[in-house]
Structure formats: C-alpha cells, structure tokens
Amino acid sequence: MIEHIQVVPDKCRACRRCEVACIAAHHGMSFKEAMKHRDVLVSRVQVVKAEGFKTTVRCHQCDPAPCCNVCPTGALQQEKDGRITMRVQFCVACKMCIAVCPYGTISLDTIGMPDLSGDDAETIAQRARREVAVRCDMCRAWREENGKKITACMEACPVRALSMVEPDGTVVEAPQPEKKPVAEAKEAPKETAPE
C-alpha cells in the first residue's frame, strides 16, 4: 500500500480551503496570497459538487500507476516503494497521463515565475514559463520543509474530512483545529443569595 489521502464525503462542506492550501503549499505563498490567486494558479486537489454530494478528488497513488506506464518521456515514474515521482524537466505536456488517469486528477500547470503584479514588463523567468502535468504529491516537499506530518489540505480542512493512510494501513487524522480566543464576555452581575 502507498501513502494516500482518504475522504469522508459526508463531512465535506465544499468550502474549497483544501484547494487554496494546496496552491499555497506548492507555490510558496501564504493562504491569504493563494486566495487572491486561486483563479490563476492550479490546485492539485479539486472539490466536486453535484446535487446532494460534495467531495474532493486527488491522485489515488495507484499501484501500478497508469500515468507512469503511459508517460513517453519518463517524467512520471513509480519508485520501488510505490511512490509516484514527477521529474518536471522531462515533461512535454503531452496530456497522455491526463487521458489515462481513472480519477481525472492530473492537470496542466504552468511552471516558472508568474506575473502576479500586473506589470507589462516581463522577466526572463516569466518568458521561460511552460506547462507541465501536476498531480497530488502528498505535499512531500512542503511537509519536509515545514516539519509537518500531514498534508496542507488536511491541515486546512475545518471539518477534518481528510485523513492520511500510511503504507502500513495506519490512519492519521488532522488534529482538532485550534479555536480562536473569544473576546472576554462581559461579566454578568453576580446574584447574591438571600440572607
């Protein structure tokens, strides 16, 4: 078994916080910045809503992975332990992985420096932008960099609809969200007991 995320659809509110957290984690920005740019940047998790049904979808970490088997350049590879890795330098955005993914969880994203400032002056890094296939990578780099045990989407979910299943079958749930301190309530007048 490969480490993967499972969803409890009955808990999901379709608030899209998981999508914003994914953008923030993969583009090195704060949650607030990601909110501003969520229409421009690609999330690796998508919220799906239908009548009476809400859930999130992401890479199911298949073993064997059809996306890796069809990739003509070897950009997507499945390691011996089952993990799927993406070597963006080899991706030619042919969309074959998108076509074979049984869950529809691979998208194209543009790498390079986005022009989020609105200026017309384009830098070399912005001109070098290109499309590559992206899929849920279980936030491996983000988790390592930030010392986290759970993914960004799990951390952001206010109803704890997401949990991680480790290779040994252990289910890791997100901790209860910390409650924000409530402003001190005005003290009610104390009642005195009759003498």
Automatic annotation (TrEMBL):
InterPro entries documented for this protein: 4Fe4S_Fe-S-bd, 4Fe4S_Fe_S_CS, RnfB_subfamily
SUPFAM superfamilies per the UniProt record, alphabetical: 4Fe-4S ferredoxins (SSF54862)
Extent of Basic and acidic residues compositional bias: 176-195
Alphabetized CDD domains for the sequence: HycB_like
Domain 4Fe-4S ferredoxin-type: 3-34, 49-81, 82-111
Keywords noted in UniProt: 4Fe-4S, Electron transport, Iron, Iron-sulfur, Metal-binding, Transport
Superkingdom as given in the UniProt entry: Bacteria
Region Disordered: start-end pairs: 168-195
Gene Ontology MF, one: 4 iron, 4 sulfur cluster binding
The protein's name in its UniProt record: 4Fe-4S dicluster domain-containing protein
Species for this entry: Desulfovibrio porci
